[in-house]
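Progress against Task 2.4 (sequence-to-structure conversion) is shown through the following example record, which the project officer requested during the mid-term review.
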Amino acid sequence: MTDPFVALVIEALNLMHPRFAGSHGLSYAPEEAAEPPAARKARERGFVLEFYAEFRRLWDRAEPVRRGLGHIVTQGEPLAGSRAPDLLFWKLGEHGAADSRLAAVSFALLSNPSAVSADLALLAKWRDAPGYPRCVSVLLGKLAELPDGGAPRRRRDECVLRRGEVAGGAGGTAMNPTEHGAAVRTPPLTGERPMIHYTELPACSPDSPIATESAFYRREVSRLLAEGHEGRWVLIKGEQVIGIWNTRAEAFAAVDERYPDDHVLVRQLLEWEPLLHLSTWWHRAHAHSADSQRRAAG
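C-alpha cells generated for the chain above:
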C-alpha cells in the first residue's frame, strides 16, 4: 500500500503544468553537468516551484487531513546545516502537542548525476538526523535515461526506489519508497511517453463525482486483467461493471444509450497505461457533442 504522503506527492506531480515545470529547462547538456549551475540545481528550480504550487492547492482542499496526515506545512529546519533537501514538511501539533517533522523531498534531473547522488546521500542523512521519517527523491527525466540497473539508490535498507508515476507531461519520474525491498517494476518501452502500472494508480479525490467508480476500478482492475480483458474498454456505474467492449466507440455508444446525463467511468483496461490517461470525463464531452449535433440536425 502506498504511503499517504507519497500518494500526495504523486498527485501533486500529476497536477503540474509542463510549461511551468520546464521553465528552466528539463535537462543538462553533458558539458554542463560538472558546472556550478548543475551543482545549484538551477534547472530543477522551475519544477520545484510548480510542484509546491500544486501541493499547496491540495492543502487548500484539505487533502492531507483527508489522508490521515493531519495539518502539514512546509518550513525550514532549525537544525539545518549548510545544505538541506528542497522541501521540508512538518505536521502541526494539535491540542498542545509540538510540531513534528514529517517528510523531506528533493528533486534532481537524471542528467545531473552528481546532484542525484548528493540528494540521496543527504536524504539518508536527514532521515536519521535531524529525523524525517519520510524521505522522497523525485528524479526527473526520460525513462531511457535511467541506468540499466534501475533508479539510483542508497543502501537497500535505507531507501529502495521503485519507478512510480511521472509528472504530467513534464518528463519527471517520482521514485516511490517501497516496503520490504520490493523489486523494481519496469514499464514496457513505448518511446518516451511515461507509463504507470495499474497497481500505482492514485486514488481519486473524494469530491469527484466519479469517486465511487474510480475506487471500484482500482479494486477490480487486477481481476479484469487476469480474466483476459487487456486493451478492452470497461464502463462502470457505481460499484458495478456495466459492460466491457473491444473498442472505445462501442463503450461510448453504450454511455449515450444508457447514461446520457449521468456520471460514469469509461476506461481502457491496461497493465501499463500512459500517465496522462484521459479518463472519466471523455463521455461527458462525447455526449455533449452528440446532443449538439442532434439539435443542429433538428
